[in-house]
Amino acid sequence: MAEAIFDEMGLPGGEVRRAYRTLQAWLDETPHEILTLRREEAETFFRRIGITFAVYGEGGDPERIIPFDIIPRILEAAEWRQISDGLIQRVKALNAFIADVYGPQDILRAGIVPRDQVILNETYRYQMQGVAVPQNVYTHIAGIDMVRVGPDEFYVLEDNCRTPSGVSYMLENREITMRLFPELFSRYNVAPVDHYCDELMRTLTSVAPRNCPGEPTVVVLTPGIYNSAYYEHSFLADQMGAELVEGPDLYVMDDVVYMRTTQGPKRVDVIYRRVDDDFLDPLTFRPDSALGVAGLMNAYRAGNVNLTNAVGAGIADDKAIYTYVPEMVKFYLGETPILKNVPTWRCADPEDAAYVIEHIAELVVKEVHGSGGYGMLVGPKAAREEIALFRELVKTSPEKYIAQPTLALSTCPTFVDEGIAPRHVDLRPFILSGREIRVVPGGLTRVAMREGSLVVNSSQGGGTKDTWVLKD
Amino acid sequence: MRIQINQQTSYRYAGPANYSMQVLRMRPRDNAGQKILFWSLSVPHFANVTQGEDAFGNPLDTLYVSRLHSEISLTISAEVETTDTGGILRGVEEAFAPVFFLRETPLTAPDEAIKTLAASAITASDGSPLDLAHRLMDRVRDAIDYRIGETHAETTAAEALAHGFGVCQDHAHVFISAARRAGLPARYVSGYLWEPRDTEYEASHAWAEAYIEGLGWVGFDVANRICPTDAHVRVACGLDYLEAAPARGLRRGGGEETLEVRLRVDAGAIQQ
């Protein structure tokens, strides 16, 4: 891993990297007042469309506008090709793993992934054991979080195989950039992303259940307006021309799912669900859930409906399972992984735990089942008390934690109060798996707006950027 | 032994409901200790039934009603030929490795009292898992008096042990929770128990199974301090009650519900 921080544009005084030269020239000729004005316009746009997210635990109204940085991030075609090939390979392996876990369990039998780590894992949905899913696809929409530490060095930070969100930011960010800076945009040959929703719809209809009577009816199932990603749910449904429904809008009759409409019941074939497994069917999972549909699992098992992503796909994005993904690529595909994993210490292993406790101040410590940047320690940036707290947590429940070295995340030029300054970024591209696997060129770039900060999660003050992939 | 089962379950609502569904786990399967000679389910003419199977291999009969109704009555009739296998379960295809049944569930999460109970059984046992399971059965039964109406379907193992009263479901839950804590895979079984009497039964029965290395799955009917005999008919299993419950359902409308269960379990000897 590179020690020095890699700036994707090239730091002041050094050489500007090729993809950024036109941008640099444009920034040099554009007064900051104009940039400030454009930033305000962007904020007005996001506020008007109502794209907000929720931050908990800070008091006050949790609804926030995610900060949008107006300076795009630019990836060259060759850089993207490497990423894209790696993503397709990785998602194929993740899918094969999930299908295997809920099927023959060859990888457990082979001793490559420890059996207990899977079958005693909270995210293992044993109710899926032996259920046949269309095309054997489980993670139809995957969001893979990546970081860059050098010109050709990308690492996968985590896989999101359940209900990854953020794609609406990818699409809205592009739209606003094209509106604010048409002239800059036209100086570049940027690959489009606006066909994402068509590709999503094509993916969903390609995995219709085996008993689907004709052209599949697709709906988007949301937990409702209080969910932090509700905007995205309604946006995607709208763009796909699919109904946006909540649990009470659906019911099951004779193992078939119907939606109540003003014209009477309508059969539903594919549910793009943004409701967590636990809440999907109160007769199979949490009995107190009011967000799901009673009997949904009956219909699913009977091959009368398909759920995307599949129930139980979360077993592949568990942070303890993450460490085995390179092995999965070799085991299922017989290939060498294109994308690298961040070296990870599993605290469930006593030797690893001892190392982590000793070196905790240099490491990033994460909860195995956590997400959203909560329950995580960035050792080098943390206060002494916080480090002491995590040391105790790892000692008490080692199996709940993993640790990784602090990576020197790449930076991109970002328009902040001080002017244009480098800020750390990551990248979440979205991979669609149906009959075929597709990756829309781009993704969601998240940026840590605070100087020096490595935490890019929107819940922790991160912002987003438009991500340009250049055509050859 | 030849066992006849006749079970009528009636749900009556204060007002009309316009939708009901019930997932039934009431259909027993053959194993080395029981052969199903006859089984039937009858439902009202306005209800549809689908058949399926859950991940544990339990047969599911799901009943659907989508018109106005204020009552649903179900009747199960069955005849089963049983033999005593000393409580050992054989002839069942297992979907999960035994270690899977160490998973905790909300109903069976151990608290300090259950952990203490498990630890005391380990100390007292001769080190063999079979002896450990028997000691657990005795300790759980000693700690919880059989009394109907003190607990309900949602009572957790920890609550039942703290309360000191309960029914077969509570005995099974506490046993399962403590067994898992002691490293023994354990699961919940619902079924029927024939008793030498000629009166109606209050409810169907439940017990636990523990995985004993060398023997396989062995039943522990904690409420009766015995391993299942030819008086037991095994119907469904799961990690806890919720996954093996004879009926779980949902309904729209209808207001308050009155449930009536009439159960007769007769043995061949007194067959008319």
Averaging pLDDT over every residue of chain A, what do you get?
91
Contiguous uncertain segments of 5+ residues of chain B? none
Major sheet attributes of chain B: 7 strands, antiparallel
Total of DSSP H or I helical runs spanning 4+ residues of chain A? 14
The succession of helices and strands of chain B, N to C, reads EEEEEHHEHEHEEEEHEE
Question: What do these coordinates show?
Answer:
The complex is a heterodimer of chains A (472) and B (272). Chain A has 472 residues and is of the alpha+beta class. Chain A is 31% helix and 24% strand. Chain A has helices at residues 21-29, 32-49, 77-101, 106-109, 115-119, 167-180, 182-187, 196-206, 230-240, 296-301, 319-322, 325-333, 350-359, 384-396; strands at residues 52-54, 63-65, 68-75, 141-150, 153-160, 218-221, 243-245, 250-253, 256-261, 264-267, 270-273, 306-308, 340-341, 345-346, 363-367, 376-378, 401-405, 411-416, 419-428, 430-433, 437-439, 444-448, 462-469. Chain A has a five-stranded mixed β-sheet with strand order 3-23-22-19-18. In chain A, α2 crosses α6 (167-180) and α3 crosses α12 (325-333). Chain A is globular, with a radius of gyration of 22 Å. Chain B is α+β, with helices and mostly antiparallel strands and 272 residues long. Chain B folds into two domains: 2-83 and 247-270, Immunoglobulin-like; 98-244, C8orf32 fold, CATH 3.10.620.30. Chain B has five helices and 13 strands. The model of chain B has no long low-confidence stretch (mean pLDDT 94). At the A-B interface, α5 and β8 of A face β1, β3, β4 and β12 of B.
Blueprint (SSEs and pairs):
The complex is a heterodimer of chains A (about 475) and B (about 270).
Chain A lengths: L20 H9 L2 H18 L2 E3 L8 E3 L2 E8 L1 H25 L4 H4 L5 H5 L21 E10 L2 E8 L6 H14 L1 H6 L8 H11 L11 E4 L8 H11 L2 E3 L4 E4 L2 E6 L2 E4 L2 E4 L22 H6 L4 E3 L10 H4 L2 H9 L6 E2 L3 E2 L3 H10 L3 E5 L8 E3 L5 H13 L4 E5 L5 E6 L2 E10 L1 E4 L3 E3 L4 E5 L13 E8 L3
Chain B lengths: L1 E23 L9 E9 L5 E6 L5 E7 L3 E14 L29 H13 L4 H15 L1 E2 L10 H7 L1 E2 L1 H14 L4 E8 L11 E8 L3 E5 L11 E7 L2 H4 L2 E7 L3 E11 L5
